[in-house]
Amino acid sequence: MHFSKTTAVLLIALSVAFAGCKKQQEATGAKQEGPGKGIVLAEVNGANITDKDFYKEQAALPPQLKPMTETPEGKKEMVDTMVVRELILQQAAKDGIDKSPEVAAKLEDLKRRVIVEAFLKKKIEESAKVSDAEMQDYYNKNKDKFKSDAQIRASHILVKSEALAKEIEKQLKGGASFEELAKKNSIDGAAPKGGDLGWFSKGSMIPDFEKVAFGLKDGETSGIVKTQFGYHIIKKTGSRPAGVRTLDEAKDEIKAALAPAKQQETFKKLKDDLKKQAKISFKEDALKELGGEGAKGGATHPADAQPAQPAQAK
């Protein structure tokens, strides 16, 4: 089987993504749905690799590796990489590697991390919501912050190859969804939001991009625009004149401004409540030894002793 440097890079990336996604699904019980129809792309000793598997793995790749899987050759190499990984998994199972204490310990550690992350995310979403009253109060006290020049709102699809850009342009002309094509193909950070870049004024974007974006009519989609970042297809989704933005127009920005403090507050309350309900005793003598002889012997701090504070809710 052909095994190139690209395959090796993809294999490492896919192995990391696979472990994370698999354990998160086991920990949360959530079945992750995505694009694809379940079409079998390859069979490996009776195990099927489907288009659903392909799209899920592609979505989990780091942005810098996504372009490797955008061309026909890249897609085939990606499937070949998934075949190699499946072969390794099957052989590892035969050798009993999956039952080894080392693997079991790492899986248990990963499971703990994913459970903590899922728990915090759920609590943050439930308790750290910014209310309409809070947004109104912030807006009333900070109206000067919402003065702006004339702005437009736009979405874009960014890819590295002109060939892929032309293929996407063809699909758009055939009636395909801009948002779905952005989610599937764009290598930009706005891809999960359908390519939405939000509102921006002149001077916010690079000149080549900005000139085209501001020249479009609302709802109009551009042709292919080449910049230093790659090949863009831009869709203008709105425009507004200079002035003070309304509360509705500023809501996303206000939420982003208020959310971190709300999250910190929620996390602190959660932490304090959990501690109040628990029996906790610190072993002062043992704590004093940390960083001493024990550290020289290779002792490490428990990975889950203090969970990281949650990232900003979107």
UniProtKB/TrEMBL annotation:
Protein name: peptidylprolyl isomerase
Stretch forming the signal peptide: 1-19
EC class: isomerase
Keywords: Isomerase, Rotamase, Signal
Biased composition (Low complexity): 298-314
Catalytic activity annotation: [protein]-peptidylproline (omega=180) = [protein]-peptidylproline (omega=0)
PpiC domain boundaries: 149-238
Organism whose genome encodes this protein: Geomonas diazotrophica
Keyword hit for Transcription: no
